[in-house]
């Protein structure tokens, strides 16, 4: 996959674009064919919406274990989570961080830290979490009727929103380990 650019900046693979900012409910192969909140696929159309992951690309990245930044496979690579989620009760699993952000390659995480204002702020204020992930489980976020009406204008209680990453076993790492020091 070729990186998508906006001006000189490389844009993370899962980011939504303003030209994709509409929603509908449809079966999703990354959610076992269940109804899910979906978006048109037009990366590069408009401007990047950094705080809004594309619903389909986010689920695809989680399901196929693709890097959040470059969209390439993470199989046979070190798994890195840069989510700032703190542990919480995950029904049926226990007490774990539950991240909406897909994992990244180490080198992609280092690149993101060099360019992402949010990660730079987290580093500056001491809240940056870099985890090497050894074990995880995917959890489907189920939407209620109000959410599907708000986003897609349709009543579809139980439709899948994002897939979330329950981080079962991980080790905290620092920016030097990431390769960003």
Question: What does this entry look like structurally?
Answer:
Helix 2 crosses helix 3. This protein is 22% helix and 34% strand. It starts with a strand and ends with a helix. It is globular, with a radius of gyration of 16 Å. The mean pLDDT is 93. The protein is built from five helices and twelve strands. It has one domain. 36% of the residues are buried. The longest helix is centred in the first third of the chain and has 10 residues. A hairpin with a 7-residue loop joins strand 4 and strand 5. A four-stranded antiparallel sheet has the order 7-11-12-10. The protein has a two-stranded antiparallel sheet with strand order 1-2. The chain is α+β, with helices and mostly antiparallel strands and 181 residues long.
Spell out the key features of this protein.
181 residues, alpha+beta, four-stranded antiparallel sheet, two-stranded antiparallel sheet, 12 strands, 34% strand
SSE inventory with pairings:
Blueprint: E1 4-6, E2 9-11, E3 15-17, E4 24-27, E5 35-38, E6 48-53, H1 55-64, E7 79-81, E8 88-90, E9 94-96, E10 98-99, H2 106-115, H3 117-124, E11 130-142, H4 145-152, E12 160-173, H5 175-178
Q: What proportion strand?
A: 25-35%
Could you name the ranges where pLDDT drops below 50 across 5 or more consecutive residues? none
Number of helices: 5
Q: Describe the global form.
A: globular
């Amino acid at each position: 996959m070729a990186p998508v650019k906006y001006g000189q900046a490389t844009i993370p693979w899962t980011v939504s674009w303003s030209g994709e900012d509409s929603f509908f409910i449809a079966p999703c192969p990354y959610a076992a064919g269940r109804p899910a909140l979906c978006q048109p696929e037009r990366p590069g159309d408009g401007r990047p919406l950094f705080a809004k992951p594309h619903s389909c690309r986010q689920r695809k990245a989680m399901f196929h274990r693709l890097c959040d930044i470059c969209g390439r496979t993470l199989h046979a690579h070190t798994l890195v989570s840069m989510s700032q989620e703190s542990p919480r009760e995950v029904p049926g699993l226990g007490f774990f961080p539950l991240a909406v952000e897909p994992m990244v390659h180490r080198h992609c995480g280092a690149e993101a830290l060099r360019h992402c204002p949010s990660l730079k702020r987290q580093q500056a204020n001491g809240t940056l979490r870099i985890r090497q992930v050894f074990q995880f489980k995917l959890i489907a976020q189920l939407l209620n009727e109000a959410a599907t009406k708000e986003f897609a204008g349709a009543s579809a209680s139980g439709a899948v929103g994002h897939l979330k990453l329950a981080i079962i076993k991980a080790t905290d790492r620092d920016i030097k380990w990431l390769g960003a020091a």
